[in-house]
UniProtKB/TrEMBL annotation:
Record bears the keyword Iron: no
PROSITE patterns hit by this protein: D_2_HYDROXYACID_DH_1, D_2_HYDROXYACID_DH_3
Family: Belongs to the D-isomer specific 2-hydroxyacid dehydrogenase family.
Keywords: NAD, Oxidoreductase
Domain D-isomer specific 2-hydroxyacid dehydrogenase NAD-binding positions: 110-296
Taxonomy of the source species: Bacteria, Bacillati, Actinomycetota, Actinomycetes, Kitasatosporales
Sequence ranges assigned to domain D-isomer specific 2-hydroxyacid dehydrogenase catalytic in this UniProt record: 8-327
Entries under CDD domains matching the protein: LDH_like_2
Gene3D superfamilies cross-referenced by the UniProt entry: NAD(P)-binding Rossmann-like Domain
Pfam families listed in its UniProt record: 2-Hacid_dh, 2-Hacid_dh_C
Keyword NAD: yes
Highest taxon of the lineage: Bacteria
InterPro entries in alphabetical order: D-isomer_2_OHA_DH_cat_dom, D-isomer_DH_CS, D-isomer_DH_CS1, D-isomer_DH_NAD-bd, D-LDH-like, NAD(P)-bd_dom_sf
Annotated protein name in UniProt: 2-hydroxyacid dehydrogenase
Amino acid sequence: MDILAFGVQADEKPLIEEAFRGRYEVRCLDVFLNDDTAPIAAGHEIVSTSVNADLGPSVLRTLAAGGTRMIAQRSTGFNNIDLAVAGELGMTVARVSSYSPYAVAEFAWALAMAVNRRIVRASTRTRDFDFRLDGLMGRDMHGRTAGVLGTGKIGEAFARIAHGFGMRLLGWDVAENLACMQLGMSYVPKEQLLVESDLVSLHVPLMPDTRHLIDADALKAMRDDAILVNSSRGGLIDTAALVHELRAGRFAGVGLDVYEAEAGLFFLDKSLEAVEDDTLARLVTFPNVLVTSHQAYYTEDAVGQIVDATAKNVLDYLAGRRSENVLVPRS
């Protein structure tokens, strides 16, 4: 039996092949799963997908008609999957419930420090042999306030790094994390966190209740010289509202590893094409904004854990076992 994996990055392919070697053959494709590519899966009982796959009703029905019975998503997030339709079609859906939280937390801090200390601008200048310091002044993080929206494993790892910088910690979540409180974190309403924080970092899942968690009102509540970082899901921020505030000259820096309309853009080479997304095109022109293409998770450690968990999900499915990773059980 062959397993078909969509949206496989070059660095990821050998890890996937090794995880299944001696068990099953894996066919790795660099194209993403959507309406156009779904017919390729015909005859494959098991399909593995990435976070930017389109697993809406039409794609799921095409997969089911072609014989697919199990979807193994190589990510923690699953907002791209219509679980209700998958259940109706009798499909099993599994995800990776957790992997190295340090990968994302460390990258969030890389974004924060890059925009704070103007690293990209400085690097560009020195490549042109311009060694001036004008416009490159940043701020010490020590003694300032870090606001962490979402204090699960990744948020906790981010808070530990902030604690190491000597920052005051504010947190917001549906449940308090004792480990964060032991670091000195105070849990406060979101509105208070936004008003008092010099740095705001997002670490919550994307759900209907959290979509545009950072909307126009939230952005206006933030300090004019605050730093905003999002390494979680693009839909947490109202990007149009963010662009509006940036045009008004607000924020010391914004670091985004995700974008709410990233599907069909991120992980692909669009360098020779006209940019049709006006919001993204405007966003990347601001000198205080740094956008990366959803790479926070992309470390050997994290990707290795994701691949291993995906292989286990497939083996559990074939053996009729159910784990905490299963979103829609086998019918």
